[in-house]
Automatic annotation (TrEMBL):
Residues 8-54 form the Putative Flp pilus-assembly TadG-like N-terminal domain. This is Secretion/DNA translocation related TadE-like protein. It holds the Pfam family Tad. It comes from Micromonospora polyrhachis. NCBIfam families: tadE_like_DECH.
């Protein structure tokens, strides 16, 4: 037997549980968006470094231009590029917006060049 004082308490519990589930879903979506941006930055950096390393003998300008083209085609922005002999190291940044109004970026550095023993 319920009293008049307890009437409607189930609605409040359902509302509270619903809000917790919505918050968990939003948090999960934010983490997912950040991970996707990180993977996108990693792919863009790896492909940009490989494409630029092919042109390392043509000079740093040509190699870095080629890397920048590939990085931008993969949704990234080239923020650093250095050529050291036959090695090319690129730093790539990808913008991420895990939640509206929360702008972040994922930054990754990749190196490509000959295998060293």
């Amino acid at each position: 037997m319920t009293t008049a004082r307890e009437r409607g308490s189930a609605s409040l519990w359902l509302l509270a549980i619903g809000l917790v589930l919505v918050a968990a879903g939003i948090g999960g979506a934010a983490v997912g968006a950040a991970r996707v941006a990180r993977h996108q930055a990693r792919v863009a950096a790896d492909l940009g470094a490989l494409a630029g390393a092919v042109h390392a003998l043509d000079g740093p300008v040509v190699a870095c231009d080629r890397a920048a083209t590939i990085v931008s085609a993969n949704g990234g922005r080239l923020t650093g590029c250095t050529v050291d002999g036959l090695d090319l190291e690129v730093t790539v940044e990808v913008a991420a917006t895990p939640l509206p109004g929360l702008d972040r970026s994922a930054t990754v550095t990749a190196r490509a060049g000959p295998i060293r023993a």
